[in-house]
Amino acid sequence: MDQPSPAVSRPPVLEVWCELQCPDCRTALDDVRALRERYGDTLDIQLRHFPLPKHAHALAAAQAYEEAYEQGSGWPYAEAVLARVEELDSRGEAVLVEVARDLGLDADEVDTALIDGRHLLVVDSDEAEGKAIGVTGTPTYVIGGERLDGGKSQDGLRERITAIADRLLAEAGSAVPGPGPATGDDAQVCRIPGRD
Q: What is the pTM of this model?
């Protein structure tokens, strides 16, 4: 008789609710990079879309991200678009296609995805789920059932996320990373994406 296989331990999930036209989300990139560096694969950091009505190109940016994600470059695409927030404000969707081209993606496919709306359901689903759990702005984080609103204040946010992640890892019997470049007195607070 076969022995049952041990349950596969899944890493804790940090959902980062953001939009790619949000300056606050852009400033969060350093924090999310630091969390990714500290935890690696032991923390699943996921980008969740929450386009805000006040940003005219946020919905298109979310759809373009989904196409970039399908092409294997979600995180680099998010970083590149956020680095050009002001340009996206002034020039619109052309920037989204340029970013794809700059990253070596199929820019024509990104453009087509913006026209045919093939990723709209994913974005709408994220937005509806965000509203259902109380997300009102970006960036907002959800980890271990706790919602942390980064749009109101960033003070101490990275430390709070780290404490929750460490607790979840310890409860799961996983190794908790020691302090590294992601912690310390000069640590900034947290805010943004990475699903891949």
A: 0.83
Segment (H or E) for 63:
helix 58-70
| SS3 of residue 51 by DSSP | coil
Phi and psi of 80, rounded to 5°?
A: -65, -40
User: Residue written as tokens 């093939």?
Assistant: 118
Distance CA 141, CA 147 (A): 6
pLDDT of residue 5: 47
Taking only the tens place, the pLDDT of each residue in 72-119 is: 999 999 999 999 999 999 999 999 999 999 999 999 999 999 999 999
Q: Which residues, in sequence order, are CB contacts of 11 under 8 Å at separation 6+?
A: 39, 41, 42, 43, 44, 174
Residue 46 three-state SS: strand
Q: Please enumerate in sequence order all residues whose Cβ is within 8 A of that of 56, keeping only pairs 6 or more positions apart, or say none.
A: 21, 89, 92
Output the six-digit token pair for 95: 């920037």
CA distance readout (Å), 122 to 14, 64, 114, 136, 177: 18, 12, 13, 18, 33
CB atoms within 10 A of CB 40: 10
Which residues in the chain show pLDDT less than 70?
1-8, 179-196
- Is residue 71 classed as helix, strand or coil in its secondary structure? coil
- Residue 90 tokens read as 């002034």
